[in-house]
Amino acid sequence: MEISATGRLEVRITAADVGKRVSVRRLNDPARPGEKFTDTVGVLASWDDGVLVITRKSGETVRIPESSLVAGKVVPSAPARRRGPAASYEELAHVSTRAWRPVESERLGEWELRAAAGFTRRANSVLPLGDPGLPLDDALSVVRRWYGERGLPAYIQTATGAEGTQELLCAELERRGWTREVTAELWIGALAPLADREEPAEVVLSREADEAWLARYQRKGLSEVALKVLGSGPSVWFATVPGEEAPAAIGRCVVDGRWAGFAAVEVDPALRRRGLASAVMAALAGRALEEGASAAWLQVETDNAGARELYAGMGFSAHHAYHHYREPGTPAPSGNRSP
Predict the structure, then answer these.
(1) Alpha helices in 56-166 (DSSP H)
(2) Are the CB atoms for 133 and 142 separated by under 8 Å?
(3) Distance separating alpha carbons of residues 254 and 231, to the nearest angstrom
(4) Which of 68, 158, 276, 314 would bridge 166 by S-S if both were Cys, CB 3.0 to 4.6 A apart?
(5) Contact 123, 116 (CB under 8 A)
(6) Whether pTM exceeds 0.90
């Protein structure tokens, strides 16, 4: 917090600092027991009508009455990573979308509208990497109409927690009644240590997801559209650990320049904690190294404690969070609507 020469806390932010990363301290409600102050760090998304809206790295929105402020300052962006690969949000956004392509897309300025018959939110949402070329309300009208013509609810995929992410857009969507659904994180790590891990099982690599691989994949009733999405990407590999009826474990990797993206790592529930997920990733990592990749990324939901523990043990760490906002006035869909 900012402290003046006289030792007093000071508020050194104004409404002109909207869009900047700030740290503020506020007084807690005296009627509630506990700490006297609460500190909040995040992007100042708005300051209107005496209320500050700050978006934390996780995407959580915090509303703070101006009257409760006791200190505040603008703070630098998150420091550069000291371990593992360095990457910008924009680079990772482009890499991750190339690894999971829709079957149909259209540009709206610097936004990309993506559709794939409802198979996963990632392939059926807007990727807003800049200016749509229209005022926001007009752009949202175009988005809702475009998805409505395809019989789909409109989703916008946003990110928070890194330089260049969309905290301000998140706040504007929430102001307009858009609903934030599943939140996940994109994690990154070095590739070579993954390939060096011992493989306790036979892993078969293939360029296509065959019937055995699909038998283990958790999304059932896959359509031709889903198969096209699974097979999309610059250099796609599928890994299978053979089992008695269905594979014991599977995984998918997309190699794209220096990056290897891992997804669909699934293990027979009866065979978990035997190193099969690590074996799948090691085999895929080895192939990605042969193709010239050096860094790895993957996506994991915030409430998947087992996966987070596994990937942290492999040297991965969170780079940014991402969220899907659903248009107001539409029910949450069912079926294959994972991130």
Answers:
(1) 89-98, 136-148
(2) no
(3) 9
(4) 158
(5) yes
(6) no
Determine phi and psi for 243, rounding to 5 degrees.
-130, -175
Region of 275 on the Ramachandran plot (φ > 0 left; ψ -120 to 50 alpha; else beta): left
Residue whose structure tokens are 């790590």 = 189
**pLDDT single digits (tens) 9-35:** 788 899 999 988 999 999 887 666 677
Residues shown for the chain: 339
Of the CA atoms within 13 Å of residue 138, those in its CB half-sphere come to 7
Separation between Cα atoms, residue 100 and residue 288, nearest integer Å = 17
Taking every pair of Cα atoms in the chain, the longest distance, rounded to a whole number of angstroms, is 74
SS3 150: coil
Buried b vs exposed e over 147-174: b needs ≥16 C-beta within 10 Å?
beeeebbbbbbbbbbbeebbbbbbbbbb
Residue with tokens 């293939």: 206
Helices and strands, counts by H and E, the chain: 8, 16
Tens of pLDDT along 112-170? 999 999 999 999 999 999 999 999 999 999 999 999 999 999 999 999 999 999 999 99
Query: What are the distances in angstroms from CA 155 to CA 44, 317, 329?
Result: 24, 27, 12
In a 10 Å sphere around its CB, with 0-12 CB exposed, 13-18 middle and 19+ buried, how is residue 7 labelled? exposed
Query: Token pair of 217, please?
Result: 């994949």
